[in-house]
From TrEMBL:
Domain Peptidase M20 dimerisation: start-end pairs: 190-280
Cofactor: Mn(2+)
Cross-referenced InterPro entries: Amidohydrolase, Bact_exopeptidase_dim_dom, Peptidase_M20, Peptidase_M20_dimer
GO biological process: diaminopimelate biosynthetic process
Cofactor note: The Mn(2+) ion enhances activity.
NCBIfam families: amidohydrolases (TIGR01891)
Pfam families: M20_dimer, Peptidase_M20
Organism: Mesorhizobium tamadayense
Alphabetical UniProt keywords: Hydrolase, Manganese, Metal-binding
CDD domains xref list: M20_Acy1-like
Binding site for Mn(2+): C103, H105, E138, H166, H361
Protein name from the UniProt record: Amidohydrolase
Annotated GO MF terms: metal ion binding; N-acetyldiaminopimelate deacetylase activity
Amino acid sequence: MTGVETFRDLQREVTEWRRYLHENPELDFREYNTAKFVAEKLASFGINHIVTGIAETGIVALIQGEGGDGPTIGLRADMDALPIIEASNKPWSSKTPGIMHGCGHDGHTAMLLGAAKHLASTRNFKGCAALIFQPAEEVEFPSGGFRMVEEGIMDRFGISQVFGMHTRPGIDIGAFGIRHGATMGSQDDFDIVVKGAGGHASTPHRTVDPVTIGAQIILGLQTLVSRKTDPMESLVISVTKLKASQAYNQIPDQVEISGTVRALASNLRDFAEQEMLAAAQGIARGFGGDVDFRYLRSCPVTFNHPEETELAITAARSLVGHDCVDDNMKVTMGAEDFAYMSEARPGAYIFIGNGPTVPTHHPAYDFNDEALPYGIGYWVKLVETILPV
């Protein structure tokens, strides 16, 4: 028997909460019903210090341990859904057309609520656990994590360390994955407007064709990764949007190119911004055109701090055993706005197994309810590990 058995009594109730949240998804900064549901549950557990309305719909609730004075640690769960048409065909599928919980945030919220119920009933720790229910993780800058930090939650609630958790398809149920240092990439976004001189498609020699220039720029951006960065470093430049003429026989005056940049080091973000502009300008001007360039810095690298990572590993292994915690999992270039919180305070971010399911952000994705007691147990073990009586 492992430590998780202690938390199986909560599974049925927390599954009902999770499926209710899945049926009623809400998008960024509009999680009004979700926030109301969370606040009412927290109050029903006997938690008296509940602050709502942070970053529109965010919540911070404090549970004071009975072991005496001590620090306050933050436990963060995100609450928002995605603008995706659900195709899971589950009985608890989304009731809101075009919106679904495609990234497991319904499970994240439910697991932290389950931990809140347990911690509020036992209070077998010193100091304080600050439960952070965050809106708008899925949006571009400024996201919910950024706004909660900007609105001062770390100082306001005296949070000294902060921890996050995310579901991960492909990791077995009952297993966890984590790593020291950079664990998820930064996210920046860019727009390039290629300026030319349009005309009829039958007389391209009378134009400065921004479509041709744009094609050269798209290819040129890839050489910044393959030929101008260290192959041992991680940089991804992906063009994801391309807008030109809507007519078959028209060469437009301009073409719009947009995309995303992912990196694992801040110096690569600086490199990308400078070199992308230089490359786009050089190519465009060589063909007689020019560019307007916008580079928007969004989410920083998600970085796991040494002490907090070891604490997270210890808590997870106390729950499921040594072999079920991979402490050197592969880095991912996906971004996560928990990074703003771990910039403001030292912290660690762990992944919890969802089993062999489709990936997150897939229309058929669904959080695996068998993971709930493991997530609840991890949060409880983490609090009792860091704040022992």
